[in-house]
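To make the argument concrete, we let one protein speak, a sequence paired with a row of structure tokens, as a model reads it:
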Amino acid sequence: MNALDKQIIGDWVDLREASRNFFSLIEFFKPGKSGLKKIILELENSIENGILEYKNIMLRPFFRLLEETKYKNVQISDIKNLGVQIKELLFVNQVQRLFTTGVISISQNKSFEHHLSAENIEINSILKDVLGRIKINPGLKSHVAIKNILVQISVYKREKALLEELTAKKGNKNQNFIDNFRKTFESIFKSIRKNYESLLKEEAAQFVHKNPLSLINIEKISHILFNQAKEFSAIISTLEFVLQEKYKIRAILLNLTKTQDTLKRLIQNEMKIYEQEATLAGLSNTDISREFCHEIISYLNKYSVKEYSQTEEE
């Protein structure tokens, strides 16, 4: 057994020991506050198609390096940067696996009211919606949020009429005069949006949806994640080996080209499991992929806030 094989096996044994729970993973990978922030951002950028998109994006530089190695020597800095990226991918893979083995619990229900915002909704659209609701159900006039919106609309109309009257009579074009009214209008609009947002969230809170991951057998995914981790770990060990030894770099990297098809197949197999489970649950494979992304982001965010806010206080 050569030195590289020994390192690959030794690193894999260490990883398996560290993968018992999230805190031992943190101790093993030591991502730190900035590292977690970077990982969370990369996951958020892949949220449209979820964890599968994230994995494909993270593997692209590795595939490019393998292609470049066929024709030329690669830079040490490129190998080093790639090692960091694959290590982040392995960390996320292991966090995902903790969900599939039940070590980390998934959120049982999903409620979307926290994501609602009226910040960018046009005031005219809000007024049209509110008046439409009242037309259908006049009793809504007594609803606190709607009542507040109607009051603010009345104030706006009165202030606007006053501005037009004063401007017409005095021809007052003073900028301070106009700015004072503008600030009043901004305050009114802010109040209208705040109350409308409250109304939307109140309605959304009535609809709680089952977490897609709670509707499938996520344990089936654990084995494929285990095999992915083994490949990721071997890549990291190989990259670290060539950085340490700086010997036969190109030849060793060329030997990694066979892992390209293996990795693509493993990602494809993960997607196939999603498709099978999604069909049984009346979902899509994207629903499952996206929800894994959401769960990992949420968990890492909670840990980061709790861990590093305490550190900063100390």
About this structure: The chain is about 75% helix and 0% strand. The first helix runs from residue 3 to 18. Strands lie at 109-110, 209-210.
